[in-house]
TrEMBL record:
GO (cellular component) term, any one: sarcoplasmic reticulum
Protein name: Sarcoglycan delta
Native species: Bos indicus x Bos taurus
Main localisation: membrane
Organism ancestry: Eukaryota, Metazoa, Chordata, Craniata, Vertebrata
Membrane topology: Single-pass type II membrane protein
Entry's localization field: Cell membrane, Sarcolemma; Cytoplasm, Cytoskeleton
Gene that specifies this protein: SGCD
PANTHER family (alphabetical): DELTA-SARCOGLYCAN (PTHR12939:SF6), SARCOGLYCAN (PTHR12939)
Regions crossing the membrane: 33-56
Family as reported in the entry's similarity comment: Belongs to the sarcoglycan beta/delta/gamma/zeta family.
Length: 289
């Protein structure tokens, strides 16, 4: 440190003593401490500068952005995997052309649609156990805009041309079902079954049951009823067989022919009676009891 000396004269009176000299500056341990702090400050500045350069290098800071984050005219562009620890607010999220967009989460992914009062209008929750959707109406459409499926509080609509149920147990309808056509897949059987209740098929203009390449069976435990209030019931086939009709017990002596006639009781029951030269129904009326 520079040293300064000056002479201080007290008044104009001559003195027998010589002039007094005062030293101005920092000396001794104070000077060494000052040098030490200046050196420490320079070291800290160099370390801070080196750390800043290292962070810029590691984070890949450029003029266009940072790391996988790029700033473009259309917004922000992320390349590679990105992790958000806090809520993300964006107007639009889209993937790179030709690539898929993935959302990964350890628990679930929730998408909320809010109104101006920040009230949830529609919510979609995809979790490890289920996918839940909350809203007034749910619709599935094709690319052309054709409705495939919709559901709301009033009804569920299936707009596809064909509804296929692949379950081994079929489809269970606890109440009624309304459809213009019920058919099975080619070379498959179609079964309409009610294990504990009755099965009723109604139509204002008729019910048609058609099996073009196989048999048709109608089986019940107690009673099978075919009823036509204003029209008629027509059995149109090359052969009509009633194999389990009861037989009358009367047999004329010496007659062994295998020709029978169908008789109808007053209560509507049918039975077979061995044919004769005339009607034998009145002889076997005991079957009608």
């Amino acid at each position: 440190m520079p040293q300064e000396q000056y002479t201080h004269h007290r008044g104009t009176m001559p003195s027998s003593e010589g002039p007094q000299v005062y030293k101005v500056g920092i000396y001794g341990w104070r000077k060494r401490c000052l040098y030490f702090f200046v050196l420490l400050l320079m070291i800290l500045i160099l370390v801070n500068l080196a750390m800043t350069i290292w962070i810029l290098k590691v984070m890949n800071f450029t003029i266009d952005g940072m790391g996988n984050l790029r700033i473009t005219e259309k917004g922000l562009k992320l390349e590679g995997d990105s992790e958000f620890l806090q809520p993300l607010y964006a107007k639009e999220i889209q993937s790179r052309p030709g690539n898929a967009l993935y959302f990964k989460s350890a628990r679930n992914v929730t998408v909320n649609i809010l109104n101006e009062q920040t009230k949830v209008l529609t919510q979609l929750i995809t979790g490890p156990k289920a996918v839940e959707a909350y809203g007034k109406k749910f619709e599935v459409k094709t690319v052309s805009g054709k409705l495939l499926f919709s559901a709301d509080n009033n009804e569920v609509v299936v707009g596809a041309e064909r509804l296929r149920v692949l379950g081994a147990e079929g489809t269970v309808f606890p109440k009624s079902i309304e459809t213009p056509n019920v058919r099975a897949d080619p070379f498959k059987e179609l079964r309409l079954e009610s294990p504990t209740r009755s099965l009723v098929m109604e139509a204002p203009k008729g019910v048609e049951i058609n099996a073009e390449a196989g048999n048709m069976e109608a089986t019940c435990r107690t009673e099978l009823r075919l009823e036509s209030k204003d029209g008629e019931i027509k059995l149109d086939a090359a052969k009509i067989k009633l194999p389990r009709l009861p037989h009358g017990s009367y047999t004329p002596t010496g007659t062994r022919q295998k020709v029978f006639e169908i008789c109808v009781c007053a209560n509507g029951r049918l039975f077979l009676s061995q044919a004769g030269t005339g009607s034998t129904c009145q002889i076997n009326t005991s079957v009608c009891l």
